[in-house]
Amino acid sequence: MTIRLKIALGSLVVGMLSLGLKYTAFLMTGSTALYADALETIVNVAASLATLFAVWMAAKPADQNHPYGHDKAEYFAAVLVGVLIVLASLSIFHSTWQSYLSSEVVTYSPLGLGVNAAAAALNGVWAWVLLKAAKKHRSPALRADGKHLVADVFTSLGVLAGVGLVTLTGWQMLDTVLAGLVGVNVLWTGWEVMKESVSGLMDEAASEDVQAHIRDMIRDHGDGALEAHDLRTRHSGRTTFIDFHLVVPGDLTVDAAHEICDRIEQAIGRKVPGAHVTIHVEPDHKAKHRGVLVL
User: Fold this and answer.
1) pLDDT at position 7, please?
2) What DSSP element (H or E) covers 148?
3) What global pTM score does this model have?
4) Which CATH number fits domain 208-293: 2.60.40.290, 3.40.47.10, 1.10.10.10, 3.30.70.1350?
């Protein structure tokens, strides 16, 4: 089992523990805001299941039907997480409206608030683990799951503070207002996750910094070539696909041209982890006098 798969499985376990704690806190207090917080955690569990499947699928090697690998499965999972977050926000809005109509009374329970705080602390620690692992392993699914947990932690802290104010001031309407604010926060998080994931599905180019590194590697390690043009990049999960045309002297041997390509590919691979480089070699009369000038 890969480390990414172990982390994804850990997210599922953490989500279920957090859900149990938050629902227990709701039962102890009757707070609609705490109920909304628990509803969001149901999404955490569903998102963890989607992430687990996506990470497992993305780890499969390339095959005849998927010659570029299965990395994009993580983007689909991230989009699904975003959709689930949006659905959770709608459920929270519904619960908030029902609470407004019924005017339920919140019961002060130090133990209940403590249980919810424990769930927030658990999610905070695991969010840090997820985001660190996502950066190290370049995993969109783990990053989406981590960002959702970060939002969940802030939501829980806000709800805890609000429920505390309800018990101190006796203003029961504050609990309903807090639940609505939780819904708005969850809705915004879902939108952000979906927007980022769709960019990956649409083959968004690598960042300007990464493209600058690629040009530097071509310039610094392309001795013997003349120029490189038509540089293109795209992300697919952990992999960054890079292709460009490399112009070499027309009388250069195939072996010599291949050696230059190998040197450039190795340099890019050291600078851009997960790079998949394709170079189209052209003779000097194909030069466009733009792009990366090696000489």
Assistant:
1) 85
2) helix 140-169
3) 0.59
4) 3.30.70.1350
